[in-house]
Amino acid sequence: LNMNIISESEPFFAALDKFKDTNWSAGPLVNGELLTGETHEVVSPFDTSKVVGKLAFANNQAIEQALSGADAAFSSWCNTPVETRANALQKLADLLEENREELIALCTREAGKSIQDGIDEVREAVDFCRYYAVQAKKMMAQPELLPGPTGELNELFLQGRGIFVCISPWNFPLAIFIGQVAAALAAGNTVVAKPAEQTSIVGFRAVQLAHQAGIPKEVLQFLPGTGATVGAAITSDERIGGVCFTGSTGTAKLINRTLANREGAIIPLIAETGGQNAMVVDSTSQPEQVVNDVVSSSFTSAGQRCSALRVLFLQEDIADRVLDVMQGAMEELSIGDPSFVKTDVGPVIDATAQANLNAHIDHIKQVGTLLKQLELPAGTEKGHFVAPTAVEIDSIKVLEKEHFGPILHVIRYKAADLNKVIDEINSTGFGLTLGIHSRNEGHALEVAAKVNVGNVYINRNQIGAVVGVQPFGGQGLSGTGPKAGGPHYLTRFVTEKTRTNNITAIGGNATLLSLGD
Ligand code: UN1
Fold first, then answer.
1. Could you say which of 142, 200, 266, 336 has the lowest number of CB atoms within 10 Å?
2. Residue 244 catalytic?
3. Cα(68) to centroid(ligand 1), Å
């Protein structure tokens, strides 16, 4: 699927345009039925007078029905041949492609994402479905034959763990939502999915498409609502078999505590959380290329990616030149309506995010030196916009936490202090992405080896990991691994069962039966 070609064609825009006034109606999908409940109006972060639709949150009854439906459906889904599960995910990928205009329009209107970001969301969601379908077949179609004592047949089976709770973020409301769900389903789990409360409608449509693709309705349950209500109820339930979460480090720790406090089984948490991502630029690098990659890594998607660049370390010999070019490049950024194709920077997600980011900008301007703050154009006061800003600071320590928006912090360093830079980056405890710009390969590889992160990018930007190419995920405060979109991701969604069979007892005629047969 080449979305870039599609995006250049007029029929594509006409098709997107069809959804510009759609008023969606969404809510919990429990055993396939759309339930009612306390209803909220969903407005666009770009212009809060523009209604996107109505959303009902799941109440206690919906939560109970979803969990018991998913629990009852587990045995049959777990024993469904992996080929059948994989085919349903391939069909879901087809349906996501067929409905891409509506899904892109929803990413734009509900999440305030740019059209290019919306195109990328659909492509990534499709890639996740197809990738995990293929991986699951590779891992699970046949038991692995293990060596065993003479006369015994020794086999290793991988199976789903039970109900997987999937809790996803608003910054990738389709790609990460579907990525978690597809992985859990491919591996033979049933799913209770809770989308981010800000961006539930796009998840709702994706679940409808999944049911249309043949995922049984009891197998995939959808519960919109807040973390404090729905999130807390489903993670503390005794019936669940695992949790897959993407969001803040604080919430991941809260979930971990909730899981630890349950009476029942010890179950895995797969968490992908925040970052304090740095880029290290030495004096051998090429300033125009650096600036190109810095601007796209820091400011596109309004900086709302956990992969985004937050702290740029510039070797002092090249710093003035890079900052000069960067300030010019920032002025080229187009800020505004995300449904215009030329828009580079749209709004942030909501009023709380906007207020927190603006408070940080006010604070950091006092602590450091303002390099550049763009003017917000007329019209942006209707939504939750934050002006892209670059500030020079002395140390990464002044940041204390991740600031999830279009704010870049710059630190100069001396060549002799490179090891201190590496220590400073590692001292944050986060370990998600790292950018390096250098034309000294040995130097670049040394930095890559010494900084503790999940994804290193050399002489390029540091966002936009592609499924199967740059599996994504970090370490330390950034998450548990394994990496989404990588060959080991499904391993945490399954449990292992060995079967050792003394086949001499039945005359040596045992045949290879799968556990489900
Ligand atoms: C996130 O922001 O939660 O590499 C994940 C990227 C995306 C993943 C970001 N594929 O930018």
1. 266
2. no
3. 33
